Amino acid sequence: MAYGSPDAAAAARVVLEALPDSLPHRLAVLLHSDCHEWSVGEDYDYEATENSWSRRLAEASSQAAVWDDATAWDALRDLLEQGIQIFAEAPPGCTALIAGMASERPTRAAAIIRGALECSDITADLVLPPALKALWKDEPDTAWEMAAELADASRAAPVRAVLRASAARLAAGDVLHPHELAIARQLATRADSAMGTDVLRLAVSMIRNAASREDAIALVCSVPFSGLARGAADFCWAFIGPAGLSWSEFTPEQRKWCLAELAKTRTIDDHRVKSAIAALSESHEDEALDLLLARLESWEQDPKPGFDPLPFAWHARSPFTNSPRRVELLRRLTRWFEEEREHPWRRELYGTKLFATVAGNVYDSAARDVLLEVFRSGEHQRIDAVAPLLSGAHRGLLWEEPQFVAEVLSAAVQLSEELYRKVGGRLMSSVTNGSKSTSPGEPYPQDLEILQRATEVRATLRAGSPEERLYAALQDYANRQIDSARREDLTFDARRTW
């Protein structure tokens, strides 16, 4: 009527006027409509419309109270199932209508629940949560009995309804009954991943309520979330926001359990997970490093497809940034690199990235001193083991710290030429690795910078020294890359046939 032609509006008005003004019809309108479908105009008052709709819901629910419970459920079921077949969509007013009809009428709420158990999963999903929510408020003991019965059902829909009713109660500001928590903990152990996700999200929602915070933490720690599709992200959502969790609120046993789940999860490349790990590194540095090392060692032993030991980037909040024990953590990593391992290249691939993360992505004096402790030892095996860590240095290290470069190269060359080449290659890779782009026929800006900076540093060094040989090699590398880029465009022109 609001958008059609005048003729269509007139025809629609005739149909509306012919509709019966009966209670079943009013219930059908409330069930399959929402308050903003019927009165839209230029001066539309949303608040007034919602208030009017609420009054209509209350009036219809009150009028339906004269029916006995069986009659009320039969009418509701028929309107619901027939309407779904006609409209082919979930009825928008179902939750509000059932809440109105079941509120303060526990026997009716129980009758609706028992009736919905005999219906399809579609009907059960729509009806059970609001009816059970009303029953928890009015008669918790009866609600407990019915919730336990639903939780033991062989179908998924009744079990889902138990958790969704509790979630709706939390959203309304209610505190969950102890029996609700007991049922949720029972459901957390089920193998059904969808059930585990619902329990985990219920527990995270409880975190925001100070009265149930300890219970929420216990419930969170009962869900093995590593096997859930987005379990780690859902779990770490509890740490986000002003009322979010802190790792200090967990007992040592609870924290150990949660970190074991994070160690097994497929990826931690989600901003919520990264934020939670960064928070862990601020209060429990060793446990945060243990977690990341466990992920690296797991991948090192069995590199399963889809398992990413570290995030691609930490973005805004990097772990260990403000740790007062950063030097000690860096020493732990060098000792970890010195351990015997079956696949050294796997540890080097991600371990170097972890060392750079703990160092703050810049090898400052503290990080350099930790590396120099190994090089000054004069032990070939130790130096060979930690040499890959040099490739994770920031690009400016070779230009800004030639004395550091000279010392590590001198330590290596005293032991063997092979070790010198390995250490030198790792230092070179800190400036040569990474993506680069340019226009066709033009050298890459990174190569031009390498040539310029290497030339400047080399001019200050003693000819023939180990460090001078490295910067000469960098010059040669840059010249080859520059010549190749210029020739590439000429070669491409020669292949053209037009």
Walk me through this protein's architecture.
With 498 residues, the protein is an all-alpha fold. The chain has a domain at 10-37 and 52-174. Helix content is 67%, strand content 0%. The protein contains 25 helices and no strands. It has helices spanning 6-18, 23-32, 46-64, 69-87, 94-102, 106-117, 121-138, 140-151, 156-171, 178-188, 193-207, 213-220, 231-236, 252-264, 271-283, 285-301, 326-338, 344-359, 365-375, 380-386, 397-400, 402-413, 417-432, 445-458, 466-495. The two termini are 65 Å apart. 36% of the residues are buried. The model has no long low-confidence stretch (mean pLDDT 91).
Question: What's the structural blueprint in terms of helices and strands?
Answer:
Elements: H1 6-18, H2 23-32, H3 46-64, H4 69-87, H5 94-102, H6 106-117, H7 121-138, H8 140-151, H9 156-171, H10 178-188, H11 193-207, H12 213-220, H13 231-236, H14 252-264, H15 271-283, H16 285-301, H17 326-338, H18 344-359, H19 365-375, H20 380-386, H21 397-400, H22 402-413, H23 417-432, H24 445-458, H25 466-495
Helix pairs in contact: 2-3, 2-4, 2-5, 3-5, 4-6, 5-7, 6-7, 7-8, 7-9, 8-10, 9-10, 9-11, 10-11, 11-12, 14-16, 15-16, 16-18, 17-18, 17-19, 22-23, 24-25
